[in-house]
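queue> holo job accepted (NDP)
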Amino acid sequence: MLASFVQDRWVTPTDGLVDIPSAIDGRTVACASSDGVDFAAAVQHAREVGGPALRALTFHERADRLKALAAFLSERKEALYALSADTGATKRDNLFDIDGGIGTLFAYASRGRRELPAERFVIEGGTEALSRGGSFVGLHVLTPLNGVGVHINAFNFPCWGMLEKLAPTILAGVPVITKPATATAYVAEALVRLIVEANVLPKGAVQFVCGSAGDLLDHLGGQDVVSFTGSAETSERLRNHPSIGRNAVRFIAERDSLNAAVLGPDATAGSPELDLFVKEVVREMTVKAGQKCTAVRRIVVPRSLETTVTDAIKAQLDKITVGDPRRDEVRMGPLASLSQRAALRDAVAALSAETEIVAGDPERVAPVGGDADKGAFMAPVLLRCAEPLRARRVHTIEPFGPVATVMPYDTLDDAVAIVAKGEGSLVASVFTYDEAVADALVFGLAPFHGRVLILDRDCAKESTGHGSPLPGLVHGGPGRAGGGEEMGGLRGVFHYMQRTALQGSPARLASLTRTWLKGAPAPVAAVHPFKREYEALAVGDTVETGSRTITIADIEHFADFTGDSFYAHMDEAAAKANPFFPGRVAHGYLILSFAAGLFVDPAPGPLLANYGLDNLRFLKPVSPGEAIRVRLTVKEKRPARKPEYGEVRWDVEVFNQDGETVARYDLLTMSARRDASSSA
Ligand code: NDP
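queue> job finished
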């Protein structure tokens, strides 16, 4: 019997139990019910216990916990593999669901450390100048919502579906109540048991509801986020729930999607792109028995290549062995349940008004192993729609299984129009080696998709494929696909945070955000900051240098030494003819080099290395005879993962003798820590 994990306790149901059958042979694998779960108390627990505990941690501390969790799960994934077989998943399918889910946790842990500050808020973008005198400025901050992330997941990816939502939410500092689809809840429950056993997340950070969602949504408000994956019908029902509308609860939906793969007209029989197309379509139809939100449902091919492509797909589908996913020779397991298969057969029947079957029999298959009657096996089915521009159902009914339809097109505009009839999908892939074809298809399809993959001979070997959502890239799509967005690197984290514009004086905003802003106090440090360990540096500590006059001899020496004898530095007449220069000017890199010469403290000390520059701009040319000076200010400090040093971002502004800015940039350095054994 599956239990829920609510208020940091396992709640075992006694009533309302639903049997969950094995996809392989129909035997009852588990039973579930959310009976006994107090949803109001769960929401309150998330808000009052999980949220404050997570918000007390910095992004780096949350990221470290996600990493520890990922490592813990990684060592125990075999147990999840074993359970997953009953959902119909093969070993190959587990790579997507279980390894993919753990990989997403690792990816977010690493992004949190690299791309977010050791703080509890994020500054987004730069400072906005709001006044002439510079005493009133604005900037944007993101802070974690004070509510709960309610995640309602589909049956097809019990692990990945949970973890890809959980990772960005926890990293944002928001607790989670996660609800799996009942059909595969036993895998999700096992995963949550491991999460609880790992004991790395704070109390109240993760709660788990097994069974129906009860009155959960009734308790949500404006600080909460619902992220849903599943059917369009359920999504619509939830979106129209009174609490969601009334309280402006953020609602992210990922739902039906009739993804397309389009073969360019430049492909020919035997060309790499045609072969890749066939391989990818077959893979998409059969991985997870086609029960993937990103699977290819519409196979859009030039009419002249239709027979060639169809024959090639048929030949490959013939080689797919359907059966018990635990057997080595089996390439495709059963669907998740008999009801899922019944729904799929209904979908194929509904599509028959516009299609003909060209391969596979939806009613018959001889599985290798498993129970042919009680298991949810089905053969891959290839359909053909001769006039896709005139059809409707093939663009609106999502056959959620190993079923896809070949659709011939005559012109590129037609190909785009056919795909667009899906009214918004998660992903489309384009197979071409022709620049003009790629241009027409990609920019024609992009407005209707969250992701477009362009697959050709150059990237095929390393491509992650049509069907793989990636933590760094947006997953979601407009229209029918739900209009939501998940992952996409930090974009997915920011869904769980509030963006606020702050307005005030540079001094106030700098002290609030622990980041130096132009116009904020910049006290000249008594000791050169390069002589100070990381801990002793204060944001705002400044070096004001003396000045150095740049001579024509300096410019010529620099040109000779570096080999950069660009005319603007070496040829007076040519430089004068250039509208940007008054005559020969100093190299930008000379200015940078001289700036460093002015501000460095040369003695060995705690400053370990300069590892780059950001946002460099040369704002005004410097002519021979002019003098430059530099202001160097500690802009931001950031502890590194290693305890030996911290990262320091410096604001560097180079002025001429008239006080005009000639160059500005961020200098990035590493400074040793006083106590190398201390952590962030
Ligand atoms: P559903 O929409 O039926 O269920 C999705 C999730 O919503 C499940 O966790 C389900 O829980 C939950 N749910 C259902 N009703 C409610 C409710 N009233 N309140 C709160 N939660 C609710 O989708 P399925 O997973 O059953 O899949 C059905 C179809 O959805 C598929 O055949 C396919 O067409 C489509 N689908 C599309 C996906 C996509 O991303 N494109 C992904 C998966 C499915 P419970 O299981 O307990 O009912």
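queue> The first helix runs from residue 39 to 55.
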